[in-house]
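Continuing the series of single-chain predictions for the mutant panel. This is the parent chain; the variants come on the following pages.
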Amino acid sequence: MDAGSCNGCEVEIGSAFGPVHDAERYGARLVASPRHADALLVTGPVTRNMAAPLRRTYEATPAPRLVVAVGDCARNCGAFAGAYGLAGAVSDVVPVDLEIAGCPPRPEAIIDGLRKMTGR
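Parent structure:
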């Protein structure tokens, strides 16, 4: 879920799940609906307009659910820290289970984090 990012993290997530890095071989798969997900990948600092949709998406994900904050903006608002339009980092809105550092994080870092979650 993009909570207010610049789309740099989404490009790297796409690369992580593309044919070169192939994150699916480790048991992770992107799905279109939170109702089919076990984990939420959240990117960007959470804007005021996206705080409620993020909470609703979190609640729509079946328990037990995991939340991964992807990128520095999701972890601590990154370059946007202190901006008036932000509700805060992802952990300020929903509980976060794993943080992946980087601006944007490399596909290898994303896969490493997902491997830690899946145990593969």
